[in-house]
Amino acid sequence: MHTDLSLAPIGVFDSGVGGLTVAREIMRQLPNEKIVYFGDTARVPYGSKSKNTIIRYSKQIIRFLKTKGVKAIVVACNTASAIALEEIRPEMDIPIIGVVKPGAKVAAQKTVNKRIGVIGTEAMINSGIYTEFINRRDKDITVITKACPLFVPLVEEGWLKDSVTYEVATRYLSELKDKDIDTLVLGCTHYPLLRNTVGEIMGDGVSLVNPAYETAVSLKKLLEENNIAAGNEHRYASNMYEFYVSDTAEKFKRFANSILPFHIESIGLINIEEY
Length: 275
Prior knowledge:
The chain has helices at 20-29, 51-67, 78-83, 85-88, 100-110, 122-127, 129-137, 151-156, 163-177, 195-202, 211-225, 249-259, and strands at residues 10-14, 35-39, 72-75, 96-98, 115-120, 142-147, 183-186, 207-209, 241-245, 268-269. The chain is α/β, with parallel strands linked by helices. It has 2 domains: 5-98 and 213-274, Rossmann fold (3-Layer(aba) Sandwich); 100-211, Rossmann fold (3-Layer(aba) Sandwich). The strands form 2 sheets. Strands 4-3-1-2-9-10 form a 6-stranded parallel beta sheet, with helices on both faces. Strands 6-5-7-8 form a 4-stranded parallel beta sheet, sandwiched between helices. The radius of gyration is 18 Å and the shape is globular.
């Protein structure tokens, strides 16, 4: 039986709400693609979990997404991309991409003075994955990393343009300002929502790389290469996007509706441990 994969949805998953910035970029750049999004709100954050746990969680979520008939999967979580993706990839029978490689690639292309900063969660920074991917492309690049653990709760609180957030960001980024970087990777899916604040503090001399945006660009290419891109049938129809969480649907819904280009009515609650 030949099924038309171009009409199948793209699975996107994250440890919580952060990956919605990736989903948002996919909606903007691939407006004809359907999306099934899963946020693992019961087990967030992944940043403090062990490698084995993150791999187990990722496999459960992929099994769930496959029940929805997805044609490709985007790991919209930096931690899971960094820690689980290479392990899972060999077992996959559909294309899968993470958010780290596209961001690293663009950062390596953009830098002129070969000095790149990366900000992210502690697990992300400790994994050294951005440094590794950037240096695979160019071993002469110096990568300076900085964990910014308070950014995620501030974003989830909705304090995007708050003086407290500005103060915290100034303190975190002051270390990077002395390091003469010309490119800064926003290495956590929540961080694009703080893009203006970070840009203001770092100044015009530093270009910001948003891996959410770059991932959507890479996804577009991936779908075209595999001949599974959607045609031009639909655009922002409410039935194009499905959202599922493992806990606290209300909080997720509030956050989603504050950043997505349309209003979400219903969110499915899934017992992910069953997968």
